[in-house]
Amino acid sequence: MQVGVLERGRFVGSWMVRAVREAGHERYVALQAFRSTLAAVVAWLVVTEVFHFQQAFLAPYVAVFLVEATLVRSLQQAVVQVGAVVAGLLVAVVVTRLVESTTAAIGIAVAIGYFAGRWRRFGASGIWVAITALLVIATGASDSPILLGERLAETAIGAAIGVAVTALVFPPVYSAGKEARELTGELRDLLRDMASGCREGSSGVRDWVQRARGIDSLVQRAFEESRWAHESARMNPRPAAARAGEWARRWDRTLDDLSSVSSAVEELAHALDPVLGDDVAEADRGRLRTGIAAMLDALAEMVDAVGAGREVDPDGTCRSNLTELERFATESDDLVLTARLGAVLHTARRIVAAMGLEVR
Q: Is 345 helix (H, G, I), strand (E, B) or coil?
């Protein structure tokens, strides 16, 4: 029992240390908790101590709800949340004017509010159309213009405080590049492993294809990371936000190239299988495998250069390898081998073109 408590204590302690020292998930959670707490307390104090509103529950709720991951999302959600509350108030007023029984009014208002909240513009906030209508009728506010005005004012105050806290208290800035570097490394390593397999004469096509398919998820994660970086930079007052936006734009160009490369690598893996088979003449086998391996290594270096922002194929190694393999294909008397090698060369040229080079 004591050991378990000590382990949990060490975990909490290490979590807090990471939150302070590292700009990772722990710090994000800690900052969001701090911002949400601050927004709720400030909203509650404003509506109760400054304006002296009764039943002041909407302001802190809305304030917490609008402490979003980015300022843009906070502003967008503020509009949606205020709209949902206003819709709920309207539903409550209309229903209570037409239905005398409170019980019946609550049932009808919740039903109408639920369907009204399904409007796609409301998104996840749609449920608050029904909830607001329910609370307004249950507390008797629907019969009082003053109380209705207070509910609207609370909502506006909470929205303003939530947006202000997101904008002014450590506004989040997300950087791009981590996922893109992982994508670059996986593409490079896969091409190098394919080159090693060619030299050794072992066809690991099934494994290569499986890894190439898995790269699609890395591409999606890299683009998602870039989108978050762009969004966090918009309207963000922090100086770091401008740098993050510029860095994201740099990676956008790289991702466009690498996403095209990743889609062609799987085709290249499939095309290699028949070329590396044992039915290739022994006299041609060694030269062919060596040439393809050299081409794959050169492609891997090109991918690495794209990810690092260096000049791609500065000495023309990859283009020379492609030209040499094309010469081999045209000089071969084996028409089947020529066709198979042509498929490899076609896909390899697509990869080269995706990285901004032309091959004659």
A: helix
Specify burial of residue 246 (Cβ count, 10 A radius: 0-12, 13-18, 19+): exposed
- Report CA torsion sign: 135, 140, 143, 146: negative
Q: CA distances (Å), 302 to each of 89, 183, 298, 306, 326, in order?
A: 61, 14, 6, 6, 20
| Pair 180, 258: CB distance under 8 Å | yes
Question: How does residue 321 score in pLDDT terms, banded at 50, 70 and 90?
Answer: confident
Q: Which of helix, strand or coil describes residue 124?
A: helix
SS3 35: helix
Count other Cβ atoms within 10 Å, centred on residue 310. Answer: 11
Which string of DSSP letters, residue by residue, matches 226-241? Answer: HHHHHHHHTT--SHHH
d(CA 19, CA 35): 15
Q: Which residues contact 126 (CB under 8 A, 6 or more apart)?
A: 84, 116, 117, 118, 119
Q: Position of tokens 């240390």?
A: 17
Mean pLDDT across the chain, nearest whole number? 84
> What integer pLDDT is reported at residue 32 of this predicted model?
87
Note the helical H segments in the chain.
2-21, 25-45, 58-65, 71-98, 102-116, 127-138, 145-168, 178-200, 205-233, 239-275, 282-308, 317-331, 335-354
pLDDT band at residue 44, thresholds of 50, 70 and 90?
A: very high
For residue range 151-165, what is the model confidence (pLDDT) as tens digits?
A: 888 889 999 999 999
Q: Which pLDDT value is given to residue 112? A: 95
Cβ partners under 8 Å of residue 201, min gap 6: 276, 285, 289
- Give 42's DSSP letter: H
- Range scoring the smallest mean pLDDT among 95-104, 219-228, 275-284: 275-284
Integer Cα distance of 77 and 213 in angstroms: 36
224: left (phi over 0), alpha (psi -120 to 50) or beta: alpha
pTM for the whole thing? 0.71
Measure CA of the first residue to CA of the last residue in the chain; give whole Å.
Answer: 73
Backbone dihedral angles phi then psi of residue 101, each to the nearest 5 degrees:
-70, 130
